[in-house]
């Protein structure tokens, strides 16, 4: 028995495994009642039709400067590339291989508008991306807490996000990414799909919200070098999600509380009413945070600014 196990282990170790037995990626997408089958990375690309951009491997990317970081491939569309119609403000769900194996790390969703009338033929490496959704450490500690990745697994290994209602209509790529932190270097699993957004608004992403892939991350980002098994992790309850501030966030001078928020979604709710809680604390200056889930700081804005809701997690003096 013992020798049999050893032999088995040796065989597994020495045999090249062409189709990765772990890891994976986005295998399909749903928009409303429409189901879109994904790209099949281990089948011949000939004849494949999918809204998902071609991708080539179940293996993770482990370098923030890897040239394939935008869409897990060389950035090109397929010969028979499809595009899905979607309305701004509508939900879209990505499905990973089920169950997804890695519960520790953040979930992130980005979009990038393509020049012209279609993303087909546009290399994803040339685009500027903005982040529309993220979920980092949801509760507990970095060591044994509950993460965005765990939520994705708990939700049938899927992630649903909302196309912000405020983005301009046009052709976009959407990039779903799960980052795994169970080993270092951190593992990136990004896949992209082509969308044609209609019914959009007029709020183009600000320059401080736009990034490139590679470019958005550095191998020294605290959120990518974090050792979740360290002693420090056992008492650490905040996690800095990598990448730019969420679309719709305040300018960089006042984004620190956004960057460290555990979760959030740029659903394009825009400015609306002020928080209903009784104003307390020091006066908050223009662009300062004045409310949001878990906020315990000041809620009164310096005159003439008023506290406006950006999203569930962030209200700002504007
Ligand atoms: C952590 O968050 C998840 C998802 O919201 C929830 O199911 C779980 O009960 C939370 N755990 C604790 C300890 O709060
Ligand atoms: C769970 O995901 C699979 C695809 O991985 C899908 O076929 C199935 O309908 C989903 N189940 C639910 C309850 O959403
Ligand atoms: Cu893996």
TrEMBL record:
<keyword id="KW-0964">Secreted</keyword>
<dbReference type="GO" id="GO:0004497">
    <property type="term" value="F:monooxygenase activity"/>
</dbReference>
<dbReference type="GO" id="GO:0046872">
    <property type="term" value="F:metal ion binding"/>
</dbReference>
<feature type="signal peptide">
    <location>
        <begin position="1"/>
        <end position="22"/>
    </location>
</feature>
<dbReference type="InterPro" id="IPR035971">
    <property type="entry name" value="CBD_sf"/>
</dbReference>
<dbReference type="InterPro" id="IPR000254">
    <property type="entry name" value="CBD"/>
</dbReference>
<keyword id="KW-0119">Carbohydrate metabolism</keyword>
<dbReference type="Pfam" id="PF03443">
    <property type="entry name" value="AA9"/>
</dbReference>
<comment type="function">
    <text>Lytic polysaccharide monooxygenase (LMPO) that depolymerizes crystalline and amorphous polysaccharides via the oxidation of scissile alpha- or beta-(1-4)-glycosidic bonds, yielding C1 and/or C4 oxidation products. Catalysis by LPMOs requires the reduction of the active-site copper from Cu(II) to Cu(I) by a reducing agent and H(2)O(2) or O(2) as a cosubstrate.</text>
</comment>
<dbReference type="Pfam" id="PF00734">
    <property type="entry name" value="CBM_1"/>
</dbReference>
<feature type="compositionally biased region" description="Low complexity">
    <location>
        <begin position="254"/>
        <end position="285"/>
    </location>
</feature>
<dbReference type="InterPro" id="IPR005103">
    <property type="entry name" value="AA9_LPMO"/>
</dbReference>
<dbReference type="GO" id="GO:0005576">
    <property type="term" value="C:extracellular region"/>
</dbReference>
<feature type="region of interest" description="Disordered">
    <location>
        <begin position="239"/>
        <end position="285"/>
    </location>
</feature>
<feature type="domain" description="CBM1">
    <location>
        <begin position="282"/>
        <end position="318"/>
    </location>
</feature>
<keyword id="KW-0624">Polysaccharide degradation</keyword>
<keyword id="KW-0732">Signal</keyword>
<dbReference type="InterPro" id="IPR049892">
    <property type="entry name" value="AA9"/>
</dbReference>
<dbReference type="GO" id="GO:0030248">
    <property type="term" value="F:cellulose binding"/>
</dbReference>
<dbReference type="GO" id="GO:0030245">
    <property type="term" value="P:cellulose catabolic process"/>
</dbReference>
<keyword id="KW-0136">Cellulose degradation</keyword>
<keyword id="KW-0503">Monooxygenase</keyword>
<keyword id="KW-0186">Copper</keyword>
<protein>
    <recommendedName>
        <fullName>AA9 family lytic polysaccharide monooxygenase</fullName>
        <ecNumber>1.14.99.56</ecNumber>
    </recommendedName>
</protein>
<keyword id="KW-1015">Disulfide bond</keyword>
<keyword id="KW-0479">Metal-binding</keyword>
<dbReference type="GO" id="GO:0008810">
    <property type="term" value="F:cellulase activity"/>
</dbReference>
<keyword id="KW-0560">Oxidoreductase</keyword>
<feature type="compositionally biased region" description="Pro residues">
    <location>
        <begin position="241"/>
        <end position="253"/>
    </location>
</feature>
